Amino acid sequence: MVRVNSIDDMGVLCSLLEYNNLEGFLPLSEISRKRMRSVLRHVRVGQQQVLQVLRVDTERGYTDLSKKYIAEAERELGTEKYNKGKTVHNITKRVSETTHKDLEDIYRVYVWPLYANAASGNSAYKHPYDAFKAVAACKEGEEEDIWEGFVDVQPEVRKAFLGLIKHQMAVQPVKVGAQIELMCYSEGGIDDIKRALKAGLDLNNGQLTAVKIQLISSPLYLVWTTTLEEDKGYKCLNEVIDVIKQAITDFGGVLTVAKEPSVIGKVDA
Q1: SS3 of the chain
Q2: How much is the pTM?
């Protein structure tokens, strides 16, 4: 992950954010495989970009970079990896400050072994972020001991980690929704559509995840809910949509899913 610092006729100067802001250089020829009309359509000063390291030029003191061969999936993976690492670093750095312990020592004892365990297959976590997330997801009175069996773990540092993880990575509810189109040409018309929608809502009565339905613009409706677990939210929406579909079909109508269930926003705490 890099931050774009400046753009000139030769290329783009960047800072490598994961390597102590080491300078990197992205030649114009490495920005796109297609002919460019404007560099600014691809990179802008201040942007963060996922780039590929081509070579390290020790004589010039630059790391040569490339953008043109990075697929969208690689870009998403790189962004996710960077964001996870940034969250872990921010928490670890704060622990170092509050406990007055050396930052590298804390990484050595509490963070890097999580990577080592994952590499050896001895950990349920692929990344320290996933371990921290498991801690944050624990309910009151529960505890996930991610440092079990680790050497030199100090109670004060452990307590500082747990407090910061709970505070900074608290699970926030998200809003998930799907868009459906409802059409009915029976004598009941709109009344049959209302009955079909009510059938879906009746299925959800008494559930912990409350589903709501609102008209976007006829015949398009938004079916949505708030949840702490995306998968359960998707499952709930799909069940409601299936009931609505069956009901409207019985009335001689048609339901079409215009947009599958997905996250449509976070809920403010």
Answers
A1: CEEEEEECCCEEEEEECCCCCEEEEEEHHHCCCCCCCCHHHCCCCCCEECCEEEEEECCCCEEEEECCCCCHHHHHHHHHHHHHHHHHHHHHHHHHHHHCCCHHHHHHHHHHHHHHHHHHCCCCCCCHHHHHHHHHCCCCCCCCCCCCCCCCCCHHHHHHHHHHHHHHCCCCCEEEEEEEEEEECCCCCHHHHHHHHHHHHHHHCCCCCCEEEEEEECCEEEEEEEECCHHHHHHHHHHHHHHHHHHHHHCCEEEEEEEEEEEEEECCC
A2: 0.61
